[in-house]
Amino acid sequence: MNNDDTQILTTLKVLIIGESGVGKSRLLLRFTDNIFDEDKTATIGVDYKVEQLEINDNRVKLIIWDTAGQERFHTLSPAYYRGAQGAILVYDICNRQSFRQLDR
C-alpha cells in the first residue's frame, strides 16, 4: 500500500508513565527512532514523539507522551493525562518500589 494513498483514520494519545530512571525515554526512542541511547538524560516536564503505524491496511497515528518521573513534576501529569486513550506503564524489574509506585 502506498503511504500517500492511505489516510490516517485514527489518532491516539498514549502516555508513558513510571518513576524516574526506569527507562521511559529510552523505550520511546527505541520504538520511534530504533535507537538505544545509553546517555539519555532525565526528561524535564514532558516530551512527545509521533509514530505512524499501518494496521489492517489502515494508518494509525500515535502521539506518545513521555512524562517526567521525578516527584517535582508530578503536578504537571494530570493535565497531560486528559484525553489519553492509552498508557504504557514502565518500571524497573530490579526496583520493586518503581512497580509499587505505578499504583498511585
TrEMBL record:
Q: List, in alphabetical order, the Gene Ontology terms for molecular function in this entry.
A: GTP binding; GTPase activity
Q: Which InterPro entries match?
A: P-loop_NTPase, Rab, Sigma_54_int_dom_ATP-bd_1, Small_GTP-bd, Small_GTPase
Which spans are transmembrane here?
none
- Indicate whether Nucleotide-binding appears among the record's keywords: yes
GO terms of biological process kind: protein transport
Which terms are listed as keywords in the entry? GTP-binding, Nucleotide-binding, Protein transport, Transport
Which PANTHER family does the annotation name?
RAS-RELATED PROTEIN RAB (PTHR47977)
Q: What is this protein called?
A: Uncharacterized protein
Species this protein is from: Adineta steineri
